[in-house]
Amino acid sequence: MGRPLLQMRGIAKRFAGVHALKGVDFELESGEVHGLLGENGAGKSTLMKMLAGIYPVDEGEIFIEGNKVSINSVKDAQAHGISIIHQEISLVPHLSVAENIFLGKEPVTKIGWIDWKKMMEDARTYLRQFGLELAPETPVKKLTVAQQQMIEIIKAVSFQAKMIVMDEPTSSLTEKEVEFLFQIIGRLKEQGVGIVYISHRMNELFTITDRITVLRDGNLIGTVKTKETTTDQLIAMMVGRELTQYYIKDASPASDGDIVLSVRNLSKKGVLNEAGFDLRKGEILGFAGLVGAGRSELMKCIFGLDAYDKGEIRIDGKPVIIRNPNDAIKHGIAYVTENRKEEGLFLIRSVQYNITIKILDQFIRWFRVNARYESQKTRQFIHELAIKTPNPDQEVRNLSGGNQQKVLISRWLATNPRILILDEPTRGVDVGAKAEIYAIMNRLVKEGVSIILISSELPEVINMSDRIAVMYKGGIRAVLNRDEFSQETIMHYATGG
Hints:
Elements: E1 4-15, E2 18-29, E3 33-37, H1 44-51, E4 59-64, E5 67-69, H2 74-79, E6 82-85, H3 97-101, H4 116-129, H5 145-157, E7 163-167, H6 175-190, E8 194-198, H7 202-208, E9 211-216, E10 219-225, H8 231-239, E11 259-268, E12 272-280, E13 284-288, H9 295-302, E14 310-315, E15 318-320, H10 325-330, E16 333-336, H11 340-344, H12 351-356, E17 364-365, E18 368-369, H13 371-384, H14 401-413, E19 419-423, H15 431-446, E20 450-454, H16 458-464, E21 467-472, E22 475-481, H17 487-494
Parallel strand pairs: 3-8, 3-9, 6-7, 7-8, 13-20, 13-21, 16-19, 19-20
Antiparallel strand pairs: 1-2, 1-4, 4-5, 9-10, 11-12, 11-14, 14-15, 17-18, 21-22
């Protein structure tokens, strides 16, 4: 670490009377990776959006390399060497990789035309440096989520920034891609770049950061040196109490329990290769694998979102044909998608609308809606899942990530499923909300619900699963029992071993 690069003093921000930040101090040194930690709604993103010129500062001062500055726009921030990688990918889908990397700073010829040749060459150089085997002409809409995330990182680096804010940069990356990102961060540190690293993944914070600042309810709780703290201490700072049990799992099914779902030889050209597994009553069957292994694609076929070429699905031993999600729901299957904002939630609709949309038939009699029963059902789920919302009419987009996720889970629990597929259920969710989701899963399996858990976080899938199916190139490479669980074993099979 080196000289002070950034100092934010007494930063305060209000939204419609709500005090989002209350006199927060934050500091970043050159060549430092400074972790920013807190539950959803703690104020982390708000603080960084003021640094990036997205929100104006209500109170407080910002100093860059000792000089007081005013940041009133994104261009101001970029002029001061600040670049931010947002949690939500903000690339332009129909433009090429190269166009996205250099958007707003395109190289030009002497007569003022865009120098396409130089743009493509420079983009190719960046892609090579980041280990991405992509053509710079490729439209971004054809990339995977993980590849798009890497393009966001390249775009930030291409600004020659002094400071880079990374907001949940690994939420869509595989273990291998995370390792590579950390190598890039190491190189940036050597060049004196300061990095603010926002993440809920404790193992990453302890691996990559030098210091960690914790916010709670808009207040600065403290800044600690990473080497001098522990996970338990950080969690206590975040939530104001100790989480004595983080991974909540005390229910285990009998090893010879009834098989409720059986999948055999499910294949889809270029996606799935004779994938098969059994799911027992009351068990959590984890699915591990690298991005592109086919985990989500397999579940979408089972749920009727995608068609498959051949194979068989059995429920309670009987063959079933599932052509669409309505067929799946009738067979007691529910699917919580990994992308809650684009594929799951109706963001501008209310909490009640989102929870009850799949069971509206229960409230409609003779073309009239029983509003009282619908409201009662909504409040039941708000209470059972501890959803923090002012009222059932609140728009879902105004909730924290953890509460949005619980609303989505509530929608599918309202269908009274026997089989619940959870695809990355804790992505972008803080530790407090994670523990609550684990508790919900534990309660459901005790009640006899069978859960399929897809997760890219190996500690999560190891601690919450009764068995783990490891996928590789569209097939299931191995199914591990609890006494076989280890990160090394899972990665061995996930890489083709």
